[in-house]
Automatic annotation (TrEMBL):
Keywords attached to this entry: Membrane, Transmembrane, Transmembrane helix
Keyword Cytoplasm: no
Protein known as: Major facilitator superfamily (MFS) profile domain-containing protein
Pfam families: MFS_1
Entry GO MF terms: monocarboxylic acid transmembrane transporter activity
Membrane topology note: Multi-pass membrane protein
Record region (Disordered): 1-21
InterPro entries for this protein: MFS, MFS_dom, MFS_trans_sf, Proton-linked_MCT
Compositionally biased tracts (Polar residues): 1-11
Subcellular location field: Membrane
SUPFAM superfamilies recorded: MFS general substrate transporter
Domain Major facilitator superfamily (MFS) profile residue range list: 29-415
Cellular component terms (Gene Ontology): membrane
Length: 467
């Protein structure tokens, strides 16, 4: 009698899991993708056009380049550094209220920036408050998309983060136009109103309804943050990779516009470089998303290749002194750097598992913050000392190249791993705090597989590595 009940329960569970998998990769999930894309437009429209703000603040307060660069660098750095706080809030309250809270804080930061009387005031309002608001809201944009998608995850994430490209394309001319008509203070007030739309977007971010996922989320809420993710060697290397690439990325975004002005290129043309980066970044996110979702594509190898292209192009930037060559650089850099946002969530899931995505991403973001906070000012101080951007871009490009080289180790470990685990029962070897309890028996293997997506399991050897 007991075995019949168990069999019936097993069949019901399998049918539920089949329906759940069918509910993923479609339906309301595509509306979530659209919402996430608009949220990325608003967030990165501000944070990734800091080069445009840099020129405006430089002219408004007449501080040195190194001092002025801190306002933009703090903005992007704070966006990343509050990642762990955002992760804890997501695990405790869910994605919807966290997005609403972050949007409100960011709007207040931009609005109060219009009242600044010196560059140091902008460190607090534009740099810290606005950056913290965007940072709290940012992780939910990605986490909720990953919950709604599995097989089409790379495509869905690619479309969602394409908002970064749209934002980088739309915001530079928007900022120029608003500044021309209303001044830089009026422009910031209008951007504050636009940013309040994050609260509306957050209100529509309905959580994905899945019984098994809900149980896992309850376990996550009980522990709030899982420190076992630091036992993954591959994940630790990914953290260093993020730090170094963010250092280079921040420096380029902070100084490319000013570099073009130093080369004798006019203001509107200088701002247009960010629009070119934005549109090529947008195209790159769609293309890399589709390429990354192909079964034969190795995401880590694609990640390494794209980072290497960004690094080599930046190392060559001192040779680009004409507007045409700078446009070419903007196209190459925008396209190749798109891999950062598209592939990173999937690689994080590969190393840690889907249920640890929020915690893992929350840990990655402070590393991004450190790199972002240092990239712009270091490049600016090098210019102030040497009166040339050549050394600045060589340092920035070298950091990006090293970030790509670091990821060769996880790729090599992944290539060696399959042979060593072919005959290993995946259920028994995975840490219980990731997806499953170790008490599963062989007879329950089919049911266990129905309760999870095996592609989202963390690498076995990662979880057991002692650092």
């Amino acid at each position: 009698m007991g075995s019949r009940k168990l069999t019936t329960s097993s069949k019901v569970q399998k049918e539920h899991n089949r329906k759940t998998r069918n509910d993923k990769d479609g339906g309301y999930g595509w509306f979530i993708v659209l919402l996430s894309m608009f949220a990325h437009i608003i967030t990165y429209g501000v944070s990734w056009t800091v080069g445009v703000f840099f020129v405006l603040f430089l002219n408004a307060f007449h501080a040195t380049k190194g001092v002025t660069a801190w306002a933009g660098s703090l903005n992007t750095a704070c966006l990343y550094i509050v990642g762990p706080v955002s992760s804890i809030l997501i695990n405790k309250f869910g994605c919807r209220p966290v997005v609403i809270l972050g949007g409100a804080i960011a709007a207040v930061g931009l609005g109060t920036s219009a009242l600044a009387t010196n560059i140091y005031h902008l460190y607090i309002s534009f740099g810290v408050v606005t950056g913290v608001g965007f940072g709290i809201a940012y992780i939910p944009y990605l986490v909720i998309v990953n919950h709604y998608f599995h097989k089409k995850r790379s495509i869905a994430v690619g479309i969602a983060v394409s908002g970064i490209g749209f934002g980088s394309f739309i915001y530079p001319p928007l900022i120029e136009t608003l500044t021309h008509h209303y001044g830089w203070r009026g422009m910031l007030i209008i951007l504050s109103g636009i940013t309040l739309n994050l609260c509306v977007i957050g209100a529509f971010m309905r959580p994905f309804k899945d019984m098994d996922q809900h149980k896992n989320q309850m376990k996550v809420k009980e522990r709030v943050f899982n420190i076992d993710i630091f036992r993954s060697l591959d994940f630790l290397l990914l953290c260093l990779n993020n730090l170094l690439f963010s250092f280079g990325l921040s420096g380029v975004y902070s100084h490319l516009s000013e570099y073009s002005l130093v080369m004798g290129i006019g203001g509107p043309e200088s701002s247009m470089l960010f629009s070119v980066i934005g549109i090529s970044n947008l195209i790159g996110r769609f293309m890399i998303g589709f390429i990354g979702s192909h079964p034969v594509t190795n995401a880590i190898l694609l990640y390494i290749g794209a980072f290497s292209v960004s690094a080599i192009a930046t190392l060559c930037l001192p040779l680009f002194t004409q507007y045409g060559t700078l446009i070419s650089y903007a196209v190459i850099f925008g396209w190749s750097s798109a891999s950062f946002g598209v592939l990173l969530p999937g690689i994080t899931c590969k190393f840690l598992g889907l249920e640890e995505l929020a915690s893992g991403y929350g840990v990655l973001l402070p590393f991004n913050a450190i790199g972002t906070m240092l990239g712009g000012p270091v490049a600016g101080f090098l210019y102030d000392i040497l009166h040339s951007y050549n050394a600045s871009f060589i340092v920035l490009g070298s950091a990006m190249l090293l970030s790509a080289v670091l990821m060769v180790v996880p790729y090599w470990r992944e290539r060696r791993r399959p042979e060593s685990i072919l005959n290993v029962d995946p259920i028994k070897k995975v840490k219980p705090n990731v997806l499953l309890d170790e008490t599963h028996h062989e007879s329950d293997l089919d049911d266990s597989i129905g309760k999870m997506e095996l592609d989202d399991l963390p690498n076995r050897t990662d979880v057991h590595v002692d650092i």
